[in-house]
Structures are given as structure tokens and as C-alpha cells.
Amino acid sequence: MAAAKGACLNHVARETTDLKRLAKFYQEILGFEEIESPKFGSFEVIWLRLGPSFALHLIQRNPENRLPEGPWSATSAVADPKNLPRGHHIAFSVSNFDSFVQTLKEKGIETFEATQPNGKTRQVFFFDPDGNGLEVACWE
Fold first, then answer.
1. Rounded to two decimals, what is the model's pTM?
2. 71-140: CATH architecture
3. Is there a contact between 97 and 113 (Cβ–Cβ < 8 Å)?
4. Taking burial as the number of CB atoms within 10 A of a residue's CB, which of 17, 18, 118, 132 is the most buried?
């Protein structure tokens, strides 16, 4: 039996050097809306929400942090979505898969599309502006 009761995903946090650029990307591409964010004083945040219960917390990167910001700033950068490490992504589902993929292409976002062997699940993989992996899928 799990120690937690009623657990559900609340939010995912991403650090970035450019809060506004990253927030705009998630708003334009996936339809997130900006919500009230706390004021921490020593660093800025932008909180976004998708639907009634999922939030994305964008946090100003600590300049003293020596860890890479994302795959693109790592020493062995991942530039091609078909090479996206399978454990490094956030996944979303959409009902308008074909038009969504077309919008990504129109915006110049490099994508990699796949269909699961069952033929019922279509996926597109791509990166946000900081190099974080994203998957958008349509489950039939």
C-alpha cells in the first residue's frame, strides 16, 4: 500500500534563463494560461496552468548552478528530436493531432513523428526553447 493517499500530479518545474520566452512558447504551442505567481524576491517565476489541475512552474535559473540547463546546453547536446532520450520528456495529448503537428512545422519547430506498433497511438516529439523534451500524442 502506498504511503500517499489521493496523490496526483500537481506541477512540473523548469528552470530557464528567459522566463518570458519560455512562457510564451507554452502558451502559444500548448495553450497554457498564466496564473497568479508568488513573489519570491530573490528570483522570478511565472506559473502557467493547463486545464483545471496541471501547472507548469517556470523558475528563473540560478546563475550559480553549474548543471546544464537542458539537453542543448549539455556537453553532449541532443539537437534532433528522433534522438530524444526516452526518459527525458513531458507528454501531452491532443484531439487535433494533424493540425497541431502542422502548426509546429509552420513555426519552424523540428519534429519527429512516430506511430506505435498497435497503429492507434500517434506521437510527435520536439523540444521547447530550452531544449526540454516534449511529446504530444493522439490515442485512438
1. 0.79
2. Roll (3.10)
3. no
4. 132
